Amino acid sequence: MSRKTSCILVGAALAALLSSGAFAQSRSGPSLLGEPIAAGLPVDKVITIDANTRWANVMEDDIVKFVAGGKEFSWRFASTKNAINLKDIAPPGTIDRDIRVYLAPNPLFMNSI
Q1: How far is residue 73's CA from residue 94's CA, in Å, rounded to a whole number?
Q2: Residue 9 falls inside a structural domain
Q3: How would DSSP label each residue in the chain?
Q4: Please, are residues 67 and 74 in contact by the beta-carbon 8 Å criterion?
Q5: Domain count along the chain
Q6: Average pLDDT, the chain
Q7: Is 14 domain-assigned?
């Protein structure tokens, strides 16, 4: 196998792994989507999830506290994705359905040209 073919195969495998969400499954520490924040620390926004909630809007680097059915958790968003599934980052048993979180880039981190 040529070196070029090996590089292509490694790149394809890495792309498949990243797109599978394997790195998003970390609920105990930092991931490519951000990191959990300890309860009681300051947050930028509080979002209450109820039966009608289907989506939420946040900004990159926001620290958001989610409240759902008497349970709560906080998350710092660090993703460069446009949207993530809240169920992928929530503690087990907190979110019981797909809820999209749409991420806007933080203008403080954007390059001015």
Answers
A1: 9
A2: no
A3: --HHHHHHHHHHHHHHHHHTTGGGG-SSS-BTTEEEE-TTS--SEEEEE-TT--EEEEETT-EEEEEETTEEEEEEE---SSEEEHHHHSPTTT--S--EEEEEPPGGGSPP-
A4: no
A5: 1
A6: 78
A7: no
pLDDT, tens only, 8-63: 544 444 444 343 333 344 444 556 789 999 999 999 999 999 999 999 999 999 99
In the block, tokens 């349970």 appear at 71
Q: Does residue 87 lie within any of the structural domains?
A: yes
Token output for 37 = 């924040």
Please tell me the pTM assigned to this model.
0.69
Structure tokens at 102: 């749409």
Q: Report the alpha-carbon distance of residue 56 to residue 86 in Å, rounded.
A: 9
pLDDT, residue 27, reads 47
**Containing domain of residue 75, as a range?**
26-109
Reading the block at residue 110, the tokens are: 């954007």
Let me know if residue 33 belongs to a domain: yes
Q: What is the CATH number of the domain that holds 88?
A: 2.60.40.2280
Closest of 50, 39, 24 to residue 74, by C-alpha: 39
